[in-house]
Records
---
Amino acid sequence: MSQFQRFLAKRLAISIGLTLIAVSVIFVVLRLLPGSPFEALVTSGNLNQQQINEIRALYGLDQPMWRQYIDYMVSILTFQFGYSILRSQPVWDVLEPRLVNTLILLVPALVTTAILSSALGMYAGWNRGSLLEKSSIITTTFLRSTPVFITAIFFIIVFAYNLELVPAFGMRSVTASPEGYVDTFLSIDFLHHYLLPFTVAVLYYSGDFLLLARNGIVEKRGSEFLKLHKAKGLTEMQQLARAGRNSMLPILTYFALRLGMIFQGLILLEVVFGWPGIGRELVLAIQQQDYPLVQAAVFIMALAVIIANLAADVLYAYFDPTVSTGGGSSA
Amino acid sequence: MTLLDVENLKVTYTTEDDTVHAVNDVSFSIDEGVNYGLAGESGSGKSTIAEALLGLLPGNGTVERGKITFNGRDITSLSDTERRDMLWEDIAYIPQSAMDSLDPVMSTGDQIIQAIQAHRSVSDEKARSRVEELFEIVGLDPDRIDDYPHEFSGGMRQRVTIAMALALEPDLIIADEPTTGLDVIVQDKIIDKILEIQERMDSSLLLITHEIGVIAETCDELSILYGGKVMEQGSVDNVLVNPTNPYTMGLKNSFPEIDGSNEDAVAIPGSPPNLNHEPTACVFKDRCPFATDECGDSHPDLVSLPNRNHRSACHHVDKAAQMRRDAKNPETWDIPEAEDTATDTGEVVLETDNLEKYYEQSQSLLSQFRGEDPDYVKAVDGVSLSVRRSEVVGIAGESGCGKSTLGETMALLEDPTGGEFVFDGEPYEYYQNSNLEEFRRKVQIIFQDPFDSLNPRQTVRKLVGEPLTIHDYRSDEHEQAIIETLEKVGLTPAEKFLDQYPHELSGGQRQRVAVAKALVLDPDFLICDEPASMLDVSLKVNLLNLLRELADTEDIGIVYISHDLASLMQVSDRLAIMYLGRIIEEGAVDRIANQPKHPYTTSLLSAAPEKDPTTDRARVLLDGEPPDPVDLPTGCKFAPRCPKAEEECWATEPALDESEDEDHRAACYFPDDETAETAVEASQTDDPDQSTNAGSLSD
Ligand SMILES: Nc1ncnc2c1ncn2[C@@H]1O[C@H](COP(=O)(O)OP(=O)(O)OP(=O)(O)O)[C@@H](O)[C@H]1O
Ligand code: SF4
Ligand code: SF4
Ligand SMILES: [Mg+2]
């Protein structure tokens, strides 16, 4: 087996191990929580004990713990998420649209900010000490340290209520009843609803990328190879591009990790803007102790993070020609 | 015709609390087709001059005054665009540190193509084939233009930068220390290459270096710089043969000679001047043994000596002949004659037998995916060596021969993959299983660049005390241990240094702190891996003397690894020459210096530059690079490059004890001394210079 394959195999093994652990932790935590999803139904008097027992048997909740655990592992790892207890709908049917809604909001926001803020950060780092550098750092630090819902509410007040440019709430107008994703997302109405949360998300993510890019450039400035690039007669912009390429790896890695975390949604943002995303759904599901739904959602989120980690490692090895994927070098 | 004319150049750097007067009214001019040398110790302003010429000064550097005329144009007044157009097209640059001057994430070929396309609109294919051509010219494999810098050795990277400099056939090439940090053989080849190419292209060369030997061999004219001032200037033959300036005399003295003669190199005592004010006295006054009151009043002007191309800045040029005579005597410089102690060496402290360290080779991503079996690099391939207490064993060899790996394996920083290893009577397994802590305390290693290994935010007390804390050694008398060690390495009074930060120390003092850090644990064994490669001569000489003294007084065994034969000869008792992971010759220093047996040793010895421009050195330029350590020939590993190789050599590998001399072992069937004549007769491929050459070095 070659070194890279070994590297890949090792990373994969670690990822699989992490997945198993994560899944088990989800199982344990959910069982430890007090109460059961049926309590609400029972107390409301809609079900009698007989019916409850039947339903419990249906969901396998009458089995011994270890049996439940095995069944749970087998089904979740084969992506059979079962039925939502409260919605009596396959879990995946509940989760899928929410996940898509979240991704359609956050992925473009993340990509946009990764490109724009990194470029701005690099430029700021190159012109160290300039007004641009100082003001961009202050602004982003401010944005980073303000909770996202405050920014969101501020934007809503200004743009939705005062200027009345865009709607404040939801993903589509109440009257719209689109069929399928294409119909949902390809409309002016959607765009209207989209702009505000998108902008807030861009701002929310921007700080880290900006600082990362700026620090990378500051560190590379004054290095010997840039001096040689300058001596060759490259323009400032060409030099900056080289410095940028040289400090790109941490940004790339960070981007991959962030991308994994996007599957969790931005709960506060979704709540404030009434965006029907996965974060909001998860909170609801936890409140109602809808085990299958929570399990599946958390599993998807954990899996996304683990895969993103793996991707980050592989990307790093791929984009850095000097990374030897194992062992030392000769003298 | 004058190509470059520098007139009264003055450059300052502003720092937080000071202004550094780095270059003070320097003037010189370079004619077309002339090789010009700039020499001087570290900090004398050499690089600053180069950067000012190229407009590469960092943000805090300013050209205060002065005129730089290139081809009749004043280049200080060029606009940014005009300057960009001139760079590389007319003036190309070979940077000081090839190691990190190449963009690590761009292939070497692309970097050169970029230089070409920044100035000329040529198609990618044209540019590529030009790069292949350039690779060929500088002696690199044209198929490797898509390789990244880290895939090349130091010497090869330097060749890449040279190829880059040649790309547009500029009128002037500024080479800033193009060979520092490279071993002698590579250095010799690079210099040879630069000269050859430059001859062909008829460009001028401004060569910056602190090795006056290199200048003596390659340049027509030179300026000697000190403290940002030109001390002496003129044709190389005049200045280096008959120096008229005390600084030049001192500089010349401080180069150790490779001839095993016991004439130690004499460093100029003291440290370079503080540059935080405009020079009011002679900049060399504090270290000059001939200084008088007059010297304190003003810095002397550069005056021309009658009837020759020679200028000197000294108030006492008229007494030059007398000063030259006195300068030869170490007492003039206030240096006590080092008494040659024939050191008694103690018992063996570390011994290796057939030690091996193999590395699995990294492969291209593609073959990694395909799952091809990796090859092994035999970095250390059966080394048997023993070191006694109070003994300094030098290990020499070209870059890539495995000497650093050997050091690291001896320090158990790398696990040996084969062979025996005994330290202090206990085998490797003993230390590997649980007693590593003890080993780490008893064996210390000093790395290539001790400057960088000192954390700038820690005081000397912290730095030196750190190992004590880690190993919980002498924990109740920390302070005492630190002070004792500082005194041991010559930092007296120790109390004065305790609270200083590295940047407040001079280079030599920092070096000593790094050594103190290694010594504070009272080790039994010290491994020094090129500790002086980045230092200039006087610091280097000091460090060597310090190590020598430590070996004698502290009873520790020292392994000194370097590519610099001259320093090795000075510090070691015994010398081992390494080639491709093996030791090919081993013996007492003077035996090796005077009667090298192995042809490789002979060529190593002959590659060192001669500082006297009048003697013509017979170079034994070895063919090619060392063979690929993965695909070694079966017989003598040196056979592909050996001028004396015969059939026998290709068949089986000679053992180290081939020469049947216990004290001077060499792995060669035809060792140079006795068999020299017969070998010459027997082989036509032999270089007739070889035998005479070995002799000429020892006179
Ligand atoms: N960016 C900088 N800021 C402040 N001082 C500097 C800077 N660069 C160099 N100096 C100072 O200017 C002086 C001359 O430095 P320079 O690099 O020209 O020396 P050099 O002769 O090239 O030395 P070396 O042989 O070590 O390369 C030194 O005292 C150095 O400390
Ligand atoms: S001027 Fe004086 S101090 Fe300077 S080099 Fe000459 S003798 Fe020495
Ligand atoms: S054994 Fe032969 S090839 Fe090897 S060094 Fe001696 S003469 Fe050269
Ligand atoms: Mg320099």
---
Amino acid sequence: MRHSFLNLLRQGLSGHRGWPQAWRNPEPRRSYEAVIVGGGGHGLATAYYLAGEHGLTDVAVLERGWIGGGNTGRNTTNVRSDYMYPESAALYDLSLRVYEGLGRELDFNIMLSQRGWLFLIHDLHQMETARHKANWMQCNGIDGVIVDSAEARRMLPALNPAADARYPVIGAFPQRRGGTIRHDAVAWGYARAADRLGVDIIQNCAVEGLVMNGGCVTAVQISRGTIGCGRMGVAAAAWTARVTAMAGFPLPMTSHILQAMVTEPVRRCLDHVVISPATGAYVNQTRKGELVIGGIMDLYQSFSQRGTYPSIEKVVAAVVEMFPAFSSLKLMRHWAGVVDITPDRSPIIGPSPVPNLHLNCGCGTGGFKAIPAGGLLLAHAVATGRQHALAEAFGLERFRLNALVDEAAASGIAH
Amino acid sequence: MIVIRCPHCQVERHEDELFYGGEALPPRPSDPLQLSDPEWTGRLFFRSNPEGAVIEDRCCAAGCGHWFRVRRCTASHAILDVAPPPAMPVPLPEFSS
Ligand SMILES: Cc1cc2nc3c(=O)[nH]c(=O)nc-3n(C[C@H](O)[C@H](O)[C@H](O)COP(=O)(O)OP(=O)(O)OC[C@H]3O[C@@H](n4cnc5c(N)ncnc54)[C@H](O)[C@@H]3O)c2cc1C
Ligand SMILES: [Zn+2]
């Protein structure tokens, strides 16, 4: 059933009891042409594009828990494409452009809100860096300008007004096409659309081992038995390296916790997404009125999916420094996700040492915004066996070749 | 919160007082040209990153300033063992491309 105005009206009047199941809950078949490991945004988008763009519908997505239960359902939903290096800008802007039309394409309201994404500049060094990045972005053909402090204050009336603020705002770098998207809706929208094209989405189904034959993966082991596969795409975020270890090779990634929190809802007081790398926090207001707050990643390795008090304290202190009035709000919820960090903070996409196994991982703290592009590029690799032109710079071999796409320097904070 | 007793000065410190130096690596080769490209790639970019016990370097930054090694569970954050570096040797990371 389409999410048309008429259907919404009809369902609204009848208590929303008539909606059909959004995706099936099939028993796994004995084998599939392609198996995708990980039912986060990247895995589900991959399956959707395999079926929709490449006509490959004999596909299963295997998800250990529930779809979107990993970082896709734990992130702070910021989207933008103001990356510095041309390779990254092309990737993330493709993603944002697809997101701009995705609600219509999937017939699922992803609640895209391009309210503007603002990066605060607190000192002359940051101003220099921002100018440098603005020039790069102009060369990359992506919008982004520097505004002065008066304009930043006009956009953010709640900003710390004190003349002697510890972190005075001397300007800001907005990307106006940036903003937020409802994260669950991305997972659910892709899942429903992939399911309609014939993809089997199998939840509560962890990949526990791989069966290798002649250097290729031929089947996956799950608790209920084995499922044969012609080829495989792995998009299991921080757990991708666990899966590749089953195929006999390691990945250059470490796992860390990244935390976020939400305050009680209040009336509209913040129009944009605001990030302050210098203080180490970022914040935006949801349509319900809650402030969603994120910040620094914990530096040490962790798979705990649990928060830590020192980081909560730092992030809250940074937000209150930016917006003193927020100090009177109560935090309602707080959570953590395990992010997959590569040495250059860029994703790993494409072929692996195993010829029929392809990768999409390492998006780390910023891969929600990359979901459409990650899905398109992994689907291309799985369907054709070749790297897509846009993914060439992001292959696993870049570490041996020392050809990094060093976005660590370009972004410097989680978002 | 991670709290560790420094094996040098014997004072308990919490995670913000202990500078984190990353997963522990074997000592740098005295002759860098002795390492092959793959070995350098492993050393620079690959870590074992286990879901379980990992050996990491920490520095008693707010205290005596000495480095030491910690064996810690990455799933529970429990501290399993603490010792000065030579007492906890580690292998060179594996590599793939
Ligand atoms: C607190 C926080 C805030 C963030 N904020 C932003 C933001 O504002 N903007 C942004 O762009 N990005 C943000 N991110 C990053 C973003 O959430 C991730 O990069 C993105 O969601 C990754 O999507 P994914 O599909 O690759 O991974 P996931 O959504 O984590 O999906 C991987 C899936 O694989 C499954 N899996 C793992 N092992 C197995 C196995 N053996 N068998 C079967 N399934 C398995 C997991 O259960 C999981 O569901 C944030 C992350 C966090 C934690
Ligand atoms: Zn000490």
